[in-house]
Amino acid sequence: MIQDVLGYFGIVWRGGLLSVSEVLVVLLVCTLVVLATSLLLAAAAVAFRRRNARRRTRMDERSAAWRDAVQEVLYDGADASELSNSVSPSDVPYFLNLLLKYVRRLDGDERDTICRLAEPHLHSVLHFMSHRSPTRRMRTIQMLGELRPADAQEPVVAALDDPSPLVAMVAATTLARHHAPEHAAAILDRLARFEHWRRDFLAAMLASMGADALAALRETLRDDERTPTVRAAAADALAALSDSAAADDARDVLVTTDDVELQAATLRLLASVGRLPHLPAVRQWLDPEQALPVRLAAIRAVGRFGGPEDVAPLVGAARDDPSPWVAIAAARALKDAGASAELEILAGSDHPRSALGLQVLSEAGVS
Amino acid sequence: MSVALALLAALNGLVLVYFLAINAVYLITTVKALQVVWQYRQRLKAFNLLDPSRAHAAPPITVLAPAYNEETTCVESVRSLLTLDYPKFEIIVINDGSSDQTMERLIGAFELVPRARLPTAELSTAQVRQIHQSRSHPNLWVIDKENGGKADALNAGVNQCNTPLLCAVDADTLLERDALTRIVRPFLEDDGTVAVGGKIRVVNNCTVRSGIVTEARLPKNFLAAVQTVEYLRAFLVGRVGWAAFNASLVISGAFGLFNRGAVVDAGGYASKRTTGETVGEDMELVVRMKRLFTDQGRPCRIEFVPDSVAWTEVPESYRVLGRQRDRWQRGLIESLTRHHHMLFRRRYGATGLVAFPVFFFLEGLGPIIELAGYIGFSIVVIAGRASGAYVIAFFVLAFAIGVVLSVAAVLIEEVAFSRYGKTRDVFRMFALAALENFGFRQLNTFWRARGLFRFVTGASAWGKMERKGFQVEGAAEAESLPS
Question: What is the pTM of this model?
């Protein structure tokens, strides 16, 4: 057919590459290769299915046997080393997987006991820290981070500089959750690597470091050498941890920074922990000329700890701010400030936003 | 005569090029998808982003479920949505002027009461009659509005959405309980993410208990079973492959998660009251966001998450399936022609240079070329211009490639998810991978070509989906469901 097609356009097929019968042979060979590939893929699918089923069965069997033994070690004082030594080398991955499930639910002495059970086997996974597969490195970081004590976390700390950002994030979350006091500075120093992550997630990761990391977080918030995104994440983490000692820092940063993201984050922090002395610094951001995230955060802050003189601007924002988000926040702020009467007036009026008054009153169970 | 033969030869040449190009694309995306899904599966074992310690970092989500004459399935579907396992979510069902008992069923089942609610956006929609909130489930809202079509209903939901993310689902879709937890991942990892698609699986013949699929089975009905394999291929190969090249153009209307602000900035779903009606509002929105945000220099990442699953009922009759495929083809070509400006434009990256041309020339115009190929080859053989053996060899190769692509999709399913409990079902899928090439594939080509023809002639009908309802465990539950 190629010959025909070319012929119609005046191109003479001289069989330089293939004759028609040879084309036929090529087609048949291709077909056979493709069909053979199909058979191979089908066989692989069945093989995978069986392998996965076998692994599941094996894991279930081992887990069932070990579960009772782990319970005895945890609660009946049975010998941890005896159980640990009974695990055969081929079963180590299954055993560590089971311990990983336990350790995520435990704390204190029970957690230490699980770590003791894992300890003799962890050296066998250390070499995976340099494995070429990022997922294998992530898995290893999880095991080491969860099952090793804080003073043996050098490989996980080193993974904060892993070429894969996701592996670095796994290292950061693992360290943040379990070994924050020792490694908070290392995590915060690498935070700029994670700037494209969602801010809420970064703040939650930092907040999981807990009260031991408050000083480091405050330092990060104050440090104008760091990027605004990093400082904003620190501010949000401090808000999540309700760190009242950070309120003055938040005010100081608020009045000196030009970055909208950081302004909004410090206002959110003040909304969480601010007090009356911080109010003047907050009020200036209520102006409708300010950026939406900043205005929104300021409204919430004023609603949280504002005074009677703030009711009027809140009513104004609820009625007239061009952004429905600000209006909703202002109406809720009025509710929080106990100004239900203002909301009832709005609800009973023929103002275009009268529905907002009704909405917030119904949220409060008033109507 | 010689001109006609030359044209015929040119057509056959075009078919040959089409055949080589489309199969090359499918093979490349298959290989890429296999690699991506394998790595993804390994990754899932290693790291759970939203483990309980970080659950409060989960951004709130509003699930939008437009419903039009869904009295038979709406209550069960909403119950299923209410069982979602996600820290903060709200459900907004939009009754799009149903003429059946959809609204009454919802009011009765969920103790709905009228409530005021301030819109957060002003997309133009048909008139909203009333907004209701459930007394028994305060996170459930129902918007009762005049009929305006699916896109219009979704826009009414977008207007009432007050969370950063919104999830558009079909009212008859069953989301798996952890579907939101899984699909939100790309939004956590990259602030530039605007849309993420989830995987659609076929629920026909599966066992459903309290809105949850408890046993996945391959449908007994041939058409539904073939579509099961087709869906595996489309989602585990096509969507995964294109997303890996950062060139996704489609997110299924049955299940997708969007950045609310991005949807509003893009003008919402295409309806006659916004950017012009289309039967493919899901694809059109994605293409429009990609175009607009690239033009504005804004980040626009579109992702696909293969383990975030929604179950949907597929047609079991040729008539209904034909209408559906006809509509999908119209939606595809409408979206592409509306944004033809993106074709071969480097500024849109892989989307403009690769995905758009592939979708336009191979998927959009493909059915016409394929149909013309069947006719052209027949004439050539009858006219004695090509050997029958050659043509048969060509078709057998095309068939073999079709089989290998479907089998590869089944392999990906088994490697990563293995959702079908019975090995017999897997063998049936292999058989279907071969059988679909005899009749189903040609019919599908015909339906798609018809859709293309109707697009050219300006037809805009949606067609009606006939539902059987879900196969529910337990007689008591079965009684509460329509047949």
Answer: 0.89
